[in-house]
Amino acid sequence: MHVITAASSNHFRPLLNLLASYEHHMPASKSQISVYDLGLSDTERASLMAGGWNVIPFSFNNRPLHLNPHLPEGEGSCAWKPVLVWEATRYRPVESALWLDAGCLLHGSLAKIETVLKEVPVYTPKIGYSIERWGHPETLDWLDPVGDLRKLPCHYGGVCGFSPDGWYLLEKLKNVCLDQSIIRPPGWAKTKHRSDQIVLSILLHRYARVSGYRVIDEKLDVSVLNDWRTAEQARKKFLSDDLSFEQG
After folding, report:
1. Secondary structure of 162-195 in the HEC alphabet?
2. Vertex 123 angle, CA 117 and 128, to 5°
3. 41 or 70: which carries more pLDDT confidence?
4. Interatomic CA distance for residues 240 and 107, integer angstroms
5. 153: which strand partners?
6. Cα angle value 62/155/168 (rounded, 5°)
7. Largest CA distance in the chain
8. Where are the alpha helices (DSSP H) in 90-188?
9. How would you classify the pairing of strands 159-162 and 97-100?
10. N or C, where is the chain less crowded by C-beta within 10 Å?
């Protein structure tokens, strides 16, 4: 399974914590993870490469402006993530792919997720609110005009796996995220809307309904939103089996 993550300098510390948890729980699998450089310094990039990590540049030049995470505070969305993952899978199309945010930590090997992706085309854990909670009205109307999916659970885009059978959904997700009128309609605000997660969740539930596959959405040996942790705090966390979220 191809594991994909990314960071710029403002997420370098959590990235190191993720990689430390990966190396601890999967010491023989370094070649299976790709670290995309969204804007690391020369020193940061060199330190990763010296540690044996596969670092790949990802430029936002010649891409739609709304994909750029480096826009002023509150204006940048996470719409770039499906675009990056889709491009990464083009290099290894026969493998399952797992996206992990830099703020994730592994609490074991990824064997459970890998097994799940042999059973279903997409894996992503649910989070504690419905799709409509963080959805912009225009995004919801475009993707769910009937309105029968909005009460279903929203899923966390920071942990998202696709088997080759799920490439269709990934490409659909990518294409929607490239359309600013859907992902960032007028009135969109990062403090009120999570468009990338909303799009993922609606497409996932619709795909499951049409195809009849069972959505597997429990947490599997990965905790999220650990960006605030020091190296010592992260190590204590990933050596435990506590997958709960704590606010730093």
Report:
1. ECHHHHHHHHHHHHHHCCHHHHCCCCCCCCCCCH
2. 155
3. 41
4. 7
5. 130
6. 55
7. 52
8. 111-116, 137-143, 167-177, 180-183
9. antiparallel
10. C
Tell me the residue type at 8. S
Distance CA 51, CA 71 (A): 30
3-state secondary structure of 228: coil
Find where tokens 């992260």 sit. Answer: 234
Residue linked to tokens 């509150």 = 74
pLDDT band at 92 (very low <50, low <70, confident <90, very high): confident
Q: Which range (27-36, 88-97, 154-163) has the least confidence?
A: 88-97
Is the pLDDT at 247 greater than 70, yes or no?
no
pLDDT tens digits for 5-55? 999 999 999 999 999 999 999 999 999 999 999 999 999 999 999 999 999
Q: Which residue has the tokens 């089996």?
A: 241
Strand partners, 160: 99
Lookup result for tokens 């399952």 = 96
Tell me the C-alpha distance between 162 and 120, whole Å: 8
pLDDT at site 189: 83
- Structural domains for the chain: 2-125+156-185+213-238 (3.90.550.10)
**CA 234/CA 103 separation, integer angstroms:** 10
Angle at 8 between CA 117 and CA 60, to 5 degrees: 85
